[in-house]
Amino acid sequence: MRKTLLGAVAITALMLPGAAMAQGGTIKIGILVALEGAFATGGQDGVRNVELALKQINNTIAGKKIETVVAPTDTKPDTTVRMARKLIEQDKVDLIIGPLSGSEGIAMRDFAKTIPDKVVINGISGALETTWVDPAPNFYRFNLDGGQWGFGLGSYAVKTKGYKKIATIVADYSFGYTNFMGFAVDYCKAGGDIVQRFWQPLGQSDFGGIIAQLPENVDAIYLGLGGTDAINFLNQYQQAGEKTRLIGGTILADQTVLTARGRAKDALKGTPVSGPFATDNKDPAWTSYVKLYQDSFPANQRLPSPSLFGLGYYTATLAAIKGLEAAGGDLSNGQAKFKEALNKLQLDSPVGKITLNENRQATGTVFINEVVDGPDGNMTTKMVAKTDNVTQTLGMTADQFRALGLPSRNVVDCAKLRSGG
Question: Of the four listed, 95, 180, 362, 392, which is most buried by Cβ atoms within 10 Å?
């Protein structure tokens, strides 16, 4: 049924409100986004935020109307490439915004190399390798990667929370490895010790085996899960009567989890997490964005505030708009002017200024938050710290960072890292 649904949507495509139907005088953008699988709710928020960004310019850039085609994926790389190829070959889009999930991003890096005359702007996928290993010259990522999002949380867990010995449960795929790596580098350098690691396949709902094996003599458990995976774990964790404190990976305490039905998410109260934004950030750029989001959609058709996924697609669309405006809407000559504009772009986003490095990878701010009760009955987060100008190499030289190895089940080795090996 899922494949039938994806196929039907792929054939008909989804048009965002306000999209122009005429072929002349248009710029056609393909939106590659997960609308099936663990992150479907986040993907829906991504679509809302693309619509929101384009609405602010009346769906027009340099006198040309913007037409959008949404291509749904299920977070699987083969589906993602198939849908991207459809956008290029059948829908004839001029550029692509997406994808959402980590392994999808790596697949799109490779696909981008087969379409050098088209720009791809990442949606919110966060695997390190996408822009670190043999990056595509036409692939741009205006969000921090998962390793960057994890940085700062480890030292906060050790120095402020006193969590010096932990076990970890992490989604067994590229983003899970990357996000955990950023946390682990910081945690180990701060003196923390990871005594046991567990890995859970993305989209697998049974956590009973892992919960039964959790060690008792730890200060906390790092939980690198998101979407329905996180919700399923929290339900089973509560049912098992577990009470060990938690540390959250970036996608654990997103709006898609905190607003889920049921009380299992109450286990997150007091949990420190890190990521690209703070819900209670008082900066005018953030508060204006949140108000715009809330005012633009009925309460029953949106989340209480933008999700991580929504923010990513909004920022990516802003980058596309600014780049196209700077290029005067000129996409000739292999989109040379558009690419040049993106390469030079310093983007003022809802979470601060974003710049790109030589790999077209963002440098920006990481926020440290704790989960608390919100005034509307849902759980929310409060900002407790932040780290500015977090680079892809986590403050190390490129050679030092490269010596760690690529994100995997075995990276990072705390003892080796502390010894300088």
Answer: 180
